[in-house]
Amino acid sequence: MNILGINAYHGDASAAIVQDGKLVAAVEEERFNRLKHSAGFPAQAVRYCLTAAGIRPHELDYIAIARDSKARLMRKALYALRMPKLALNRLSAIGKFAEIKMDVAAALEVDPNRLRAQVRRVEHHKAHLASSFFVSGFDRAALLSVDGLGDFASTMWGSGAGNQMAIDGAIAFQDSLGLYYTAITQYLGFPNYGDEYKVMGLAAYGELEYLNEFSNIVRLNSKLGFQLGLDYFIHHKKGADMNWSDGIPVIGPLYSDLLEKRMGPARIPGAAIQRRHENIAASLQRRLEEVMFFLLNKLYEKTRLKKLCLAGGVAFNCVVNGKLFDHTPFEEVYIQPAPGDAGLSIGAAYYLYHQILNQPRAFVMEHAYWGPEFSDSEIRSGLRAKRNELESNQCSFRRAEELEELCRWTARRVAEGKILGLFQGRLEFGPRALGNRSMIVDPRRREMKDILNRRIKHREPFRPFAPSILEEATGDYFEHSQPSPFMLMTYPVKRNKVAEIPAPTHGDGSGRLQTVNRQTNPLYWNIINEFARLTGVPVVLNTSFNENEPIVCTPDEAINCFLRTQMDALVIGNYLVEKSPAEVGRDELEAVSQR
């Protein structure tokens, strides 16, 4: 059975394909069209998924869409009377989804009549929950999805057992923790779609000066829920204004004038960060934590289950995630690598396969490597095509014949303080670079954070970089040892280890870590292990392989990024590339390019 899952006409458009219950491929459209958080229809992602699965369009059995226009019809009707613009936007979206089979056919360049696949619609938050629980490996778990808005709801909870989920409740529009965080993010001068993670980083530098005010902005109630202080917002009056006419999602203003009256004028994007902004960010973050722990503790009281599956955009808040073990009774937490809307493509497919079709579970998502990969010959061709540019940049390159040679060469360059690009295997699904499309540097050098920002990343100085650590060494360096394979947990760094890894340690002494498992990514594990052999430290600083763009997908994109930035070295497949002042002979380049 072949199921194509799709998230379309929303930010982070994506596609995934599930064959007989096994995930075969999953990828965001942005990786192909190079537009961050790309919206619209994921045509290239759909084509890739069928290619990866080795099937033709007529072999698709189902198309699962993460949108159900029938959900909460009465509530939508009431708001439509109050907000005609919102109603028109919803009708436009419904019209696009009605043509989804036509769009799939167009993407695959086939007659729609040749597609025998049935189209099934899955409610937004049910798809979120399915994207986590059905691939978690947990037989039973408590379930929680929290984000901005989807199918007129912001939050949903329940429990999962076997191949079925039971939904116990939901919080509908107008109350939303996702919109709350986005509104304050806008107020703090970060207006772009997806900027919330910047404010999460800024929060580490502030004090809780405004926490009492934030207790009015988000209020708890005795049920499993919360309410927004709506006087601080405008989305309930005008709707959550989002458009993507240029392919990139844009959200209109969400906060009201009351926010500025209470906490001062909004920061102009690009203006200097003041102490007040840091304190607002810290208060915002702490209130989110308080509300999330309230929800989770109430959820535990209802389910009495020690295992938890989280999903939705708020599940990207790795500070909340890392504190779960200290503030709730949950002992195991699973969050898949794309808990935001990109993951809806996986969730829609698995909800259909298990919940609707009642098929047994037979898959666990242990890694994030579900995107395109490239052969040795394709990488060689890419290097050969760039030979003149490599020569002009005084680059040497050669092919490593053995894994041990590649790992030694890589670890040595990192230990020497060089910035190294790592391009290997299948592209990561989700926003985090996890060793296959990464840049890595020496975590022992405090200055590496500033060097990375100055030479390549050009990021705000308060934003952290991540430590990648051998999974088995986690408890030696961090206060918690629960694995964090998808870089979705922040743990305190042990005090006696901060001096060893200052570069990826955040301002509050924490680290947003990735634990690297030897089975799921043996090459990356071996590189870090070799670095540990050289230095005694089983950690590297890891950031995404890109420069103000989506993570690189193809060899050409990797080579171009390497050439136009001040990166020092590149491991691309089996090839070792290095910029050097030493002259490289044309004969050597010619010989390698033919291998």
SSE inventory with pairings:
Elements: E1 2-7, E2 14-19, E3 22-28, H1 30-33, H2 43-53, E4 62-65, H3 73-82, H4 84-98, H5 100-108, E5 118-121, H6 124-133, E6 140-150, E7 153-161, E8 164-172, H7 177-187, H8 196-203, H9 211-217, E9 218-221, E10 225-228, H10 235-238, E11 242-243, E12 250-251, H11 257-263, H12 275-303, E13 307-311, H13 318-327, E14 332-334, H14 344-356, H15 376-385, H16 387-392, E15 395-399, H17 403-415, E16 420-423, E17 437-441, H18 448-457, E18 466-470, H19 474-477, E19 489-492, E20 510-516, H20 522-535, E21 539-544, H21 555-564, E22 569-572, E23 575-579, H22 586-593
Parallel strand pairs: 1-4, 4-5, 6-13, 13-14, 16-22, 18-20
Antiparallel strand pairs: 1-2, 2-3, 6-7, 7-8, 9-10, 11-12, 15-23, 16-17, 17-21, 18-21, 19-20, 22-23
Helix pairs in contact: 2-5, 3-4, 6-14, 7-12, 8-12, 12-13, 17-20
Could you write a compact summary of the structure shown?
By secondary structure, this protein is α/β, with parallel strands linked by helices. 37% of the residues lie in helices and 20% in strands.
**Overall pLDDT level:** 93
CATH homologous superfamily name of the largest domain? Carbamoyltransferase, C-terminal domain
The amount of helix comes to: 25-40%
What shape does the CA trace take?
A: globular
Radius of gyration: 24 Å
Number of strands: 23
Structural category is alpha/beta
Strand proportion, as a percent range, falls in 15-25%
Which consecutive residue ranges, at least 5 long each, have pLDDT under 50?
Answer: 582-595
Strand order of the largest sheet: 15-23-22-16-17-21-18-20-19
Summarize the main sheet.
9 strands, mixed
**Mind telling me the CATH class of the largest domain?**
Alpha Beta
Counted by DSSP, the helix tally is 22
**CATH topology term of the largest domain:** DHBP synthase
How many domains make up the 3D coordinates?
Answer: 3
CATH architecture of the largest domain: Alpha-Beta Complex
The CA-CA distance between the termini, in Å, is: 41 Å
